[in-house]
Known about the structure:
Blueprint: H1 2-19, H2 28-48, H3 67-79, H4 85-93, H5 96-107, H6 128-134, H7 157-168, H8 176-183, H9 187-198
Amino acid sequence: MITNHFSTVFGGLALAVALAAPASAADAPVAGVQREASAKLLVCNVCHGGNGIPSNPSVPIIWGQQDGYLLKQLHDFDKEDRKVEVMTWMTRTLTQDEQAPAATNFARKAWPAKRTNVAATAAPRGIAVCQSCHSQNYMGAVQAEGMTTPRLAGQNYEYLVETMRKFADGERTNNGDMVQIMKGISAADRDAMAKYLAGL
Protein backbone atom coordinates (compact mmCIF):
# COMPACT_ATOMS: atom_id res chain seq x y z
CA MET A 1 0.00 0.00 0.00
CA ILE A 2 2.70 2.50 1.01
CA THR A 3 4.89 1.47 -1.90
CA ASN A 4 1.99 1.89 -4.33
CA HIS A 5 1.25 5.38 -2.99
CA PHE A 6 4.83 6.53 -3.36
CA SER A 7 5.18 4.89 -6.76
CA THR A 8 2.15 6.87 -7.91
CA VAL A 9 3.52 10.13 -6.48
CA PHE A 10 6.95 9.55 -7.96
CA GLY A 11 5.55 8.47 -11.32
CA GLY A 12 3.41 11.59 -11.57
CA LEU A 13 6.29 13.90 -10.70
CA ALA A 14 8.66 12.17 -13.09
CA LEU A 15 6.10 12.37 -15.91
CA ALA A 16 5.47 16.07 -15.32
CA VAL A 17 9.17 16.84 -15.35
CA ALA A 18 9.78 14.68 -18.42
CA LEU A 19 7.16 16.65 -20.37
CA ALA A 20 9.09 19.91 -19.94
CA ALA A 21 11.17 20.55 -23.06
CA PRO A 22 14.92 21.26 -22.70
CA ALA A 23 16.26 24.66 -23.74
CA SER A 24 18.01 23.19 -26.78
CA ALA A 25 18.75 19.84 -28.40
CA ALA A 26 22.36 20.04 -27.17
CA ASP A 27 21.17 20.50 -23.58
CA ALA A 28 18.69 17.62 -23.76
CA PRO A 29 20.75 14.80 -22.18
CA VAL A 30 22.15 16.89 -19.30
CA ALA A 31 18.90 18.76 -18.69
CA GLY A 32 16.96 15.50 -18.78
CA VAL A 33 19.20 13.89 -16.15
CA GLN A 34 19.01 16.97 -13.93
CA ARG A 35 15.23 17.14 -14.20
CA GLU A 36 14.89 13.44 -13.40
CA ALA A 37 17.10 13.76 -10.32
CA SER A 38 15.17 16.87 -9.21
CA ALA A 39 11.89 15.00 -9.62
CA LYS A 40 13.19 12.18 -7.44
CA LEU A 41 14.08 14.65 -4.69
CA LEU A 42 10.62 16.24 -4.85
CA VAL A 43 9.22 12.93 -3.63
CA CYS A 44 11.14 13.46 -0.37
CA ASN A 45 8.85 16.42 0.36
CA VAL A 46 5.89 14.07 0.83
CA CYS A 47 7.26 12.98 4.21
CA HIS A 48 10.14 15.35 5.03
CA GLY A 49 8.23 18.50 4.02
CA GLY A 50 8.67 21.01 1.23
CA ASN A 51 9.68 23.63 3.81
CA GLY A 52 11.89 21.32 5.89
CA ILE A 53 9.17 20.54 8.44
CA PRO A 54 8.16 16.87 8.23
CA SER A 55 4.50 15.98 7.70
CA ASN A 56 4.65 13.78 10.80
CA PRO A 57 6.83 14.44 13.88
CA SER A 58 8.02 10.82 13.83
CA VAL A 59 9.81 11.65 10.55
CA PRO A 60 13.23 13.29 10.97
CA ILE A 61 14.18 16.78 9.89
CA ILE A 62 16.74 16.42 7.09
CA TRP A 63 17.06 20.04 5.93
CA GLY A 64 20.35 21.36 7.28
CA GLN A 65 21.40 17.93 8.57
CA GLN A 66 25.06 16.84 8.26
CA ASP A 67 25.60 15.70 4.65
CA GLY A 68 28.00 12.89 5.57
CA TYR A 69 25.38 11.48 7.93
CA LEU A 70 22.64 11.76 5.29
CA LEU A 71 24.80 10.00 2.73
CA LYS A 72 25.56 7.14 5.13
CA GLN A 73 21.85 6.69 5.80
CA LEU A 74 21.13 6.53 2.06
CA HIS A 75 23.78 3.83 1.70
CA ASP A 76 22.41 1.98 4.74
CA PHE A 77 18.83 2.07 3.41
CA ASP A 78 20.06 0.91 -0.01
CA LYS A 79 21.92 -2.06 1.55
CA GLU A 80 19.08 -2.65 4.06
CA ASP A 81 21.45 -2.14 6.98
CA ARG A 82 18.74 0.28 8.11
CA LYS A 83 15.22 -0.95 7.43
CA VAL A 84 12.42 1.46 6.55
CA GLU A 85 10.43 0.21 3.55
CA VAL A 86 9.67 3.62 2.04
CA MET A 87 13.26 4.79 2.44
CA THR A 88 14.69 1.61 0.94
CA TRP A 89 12.44 2.06 -2.08
CA MET A 90 13.22 5.79 -2.37
CA THR A 91 16.96 5.30 -2.05
CA ARG A 92 16.93 2.68 -4.76
CA THR A 93 15.34 5.14 -7.18
CA LEU A 94 18.58 7.13 -6.90
CA THR A 95 21.63 6.03 -8.87
CA GLN A 96 24.92 5.71 -6.99
CA ASP A 97 26.01 9.00 -8.61
CA GLU A 98 22.86 10.76 -7.39
CA GLN A 99 23.13 9.79 -3.72
CA ALA A 100 25.91 12.21 -2.69
CA PRO A 101 24.36 15.21 -4.50
CA ALA A 102 20.99 14.33 -2.92
CA ALA A 103 22.55 14.36 0.56
CA THR A 104 24.33 17.64 -0.15
CA ASN A 105 21.12 19.18 -1.51
CA PHE A 106 19.33 18.69 1.79
CA ALA A 107 22.38 19.52 3.93
CA ARG A 108 22.66 22.94 2.27
CA LYS A 109 19.08 23.90 3.08
CA ALA A 110 18.31 25.89 6.22
CA TRP A 111 17.31 23.96 9.33
CA PRO A 112 13.65 24.89 10.01
CA ALA A 113 12.74 27.16 12.88
CA LYS A 114 12.19 25.40 16.20
CA ARG A 115 8.71 24.06 16.77
CA THR A 116 6.99 25.74 19.71
CA ASN A 117 5.32 22.61 21.11
CA VAL A 118 8.51 21.30 22.76
CA ALA A 119 9.99 23.46 25.49
CA ALA A 120 13.65 23.22 26.43
CA THR A 121 14.21 21.64 29.82
CA ALA A 122 17.16 21.46 32.17
CA ALA A 123 19.98 19.25 30.92
CA PRO A 124 18.99 15.71 31.93
CA ARG A 125 21.13 12.98 33.43
CA GLY A 126 23.32 11.22 30.87
CA ILE A 127 23.13 13.89 28.18
CA ALA A 128 26.89 14.46 28.32
CA VAL A 129 27.42 11.12 26.58
CA CYS A 130 25.78 12.65 23.47
CA GLN A 131 28.26 15.55 23.44
CA SER A 132 31.25 13.26 23.04
CA CYS A 133 30.22 12.48 19.44
CA HIS A 134 27.52 14.98 18.47
CA SER A 135 29.56 18.05 19.64
CA GLN A 136 29.05 20.33 22.62
CA ASN A 137 26.06 22.05 20.99
CA TYR A 138 24.61 18.79 19.58
CA MET A 139 24.97 20.02 15.99
CA GLY A 140 26.77 16.88 14.79
CA ALA A 141 30.37 16.59 13.70
CA VAL A 142 32.86 14.67 11.62
CA GLN A 143 34.65 12.19 13.88
CA ALA A 144 38.38 11.37 13.80
CA GLU A 145 37.70 8.08 11.99
CA GLY A 146 35.74 9.98 9.30
CA MET A 147 32.21 9.06 10.38
CA THR A 148 29.75 11.98 10.61
CA THR A 149 27.29 12.18 13.48
CA PRO A 150 23.90 13.84 12.97
CA ARG A 151 22.60 17.08 14.38
CA LEU A 152 20.35 16.33 17.36
CA ALA A 153 19.57 19.92 18.47
CA GLY A 154 16.03 20.81 17.42
CA GLN A 155 15.27 17.40 15.93
CA ASN A 156 11.70 16.14 16.41
CA TYR A 157 11.12 14.69 19.88
CA GLU A 158 9.00 11.82 18.54
CA TYR A 159 11.72 10.81 16.10
CA LEU A 160 14.50 11.09 18.70
CA VAL A 161 12.78 9.08 21.42
CA GLU A 162 11.73 6.33 19.00
CA THR A 163 15.19 6.17 17.44
CA MET A 164 16.78 5.84 20.88
CA ARG A 165 14.31 3.05 21.71
CA LYS A 166 15.07 1.21 18.47
CA PHE A 167 18.80 1.31 19.20
CA ALA A 168 18.22 0.20 22.81
CA ASP A 169 15.99 -2.71 21.72
CA GLY A 170 18.32 -3.76 18.90
CA GLU A 171 15.77 -2.94 16.18
CA ARG A 172 18.13 -0.45 14.58
CA THR A 173 21.70 -1.69 14.27
CA ASN A 174 23.42 0.46 11.64
CA ASN A 175 25.55 2.06 14.37
CA GLY A 176 26.97 -0.41 16.87
CA ASP A 177 28.12 2.32 19.28
CA MET A 178 24.59 3.72 19.52
CA VAL A 179 23.16 0.26 20.21
CA GLN A 180 25.52 -0.21 23.16
CA ILE A 181 25.05 3.33 24.51
CA MET A 182 21.25 3.28 24.35
CA LYS A 183 21.05 -0.18 25.94
CA GLY A 184 22.69 1.34 29.02
CA ILE A 185 20.19 4.20 29.36
CA SER A 186 16.74 3.77 30.91
CA ALA A 187 13.59 4.55 28.95
CA ALA A 188 12.82 7.45 31.31
CA ASP A 189 16.27 8.96 30.80
CA ARG A 190 16.02 8.52 27.03
CA ASP A 191 12.70 10.34 27.09
CA ALA A 192 14.19 13.23 29.08
CA MET A 193 17.16 13.40 26.70
CA ALA A 194 14.89 13.48 23.65
CA LYS A 195 12.78 16.27 25.13
CA TYR A 196 15.87 18.28 25.99
CA LEU A 197 17.45 17.88 22.54
CA ALA A 198 14.21 18.68 20.73
CA GLY A 199 13.85 21.87 22.72
CA LEU A 200 17.29 23.26 21.78
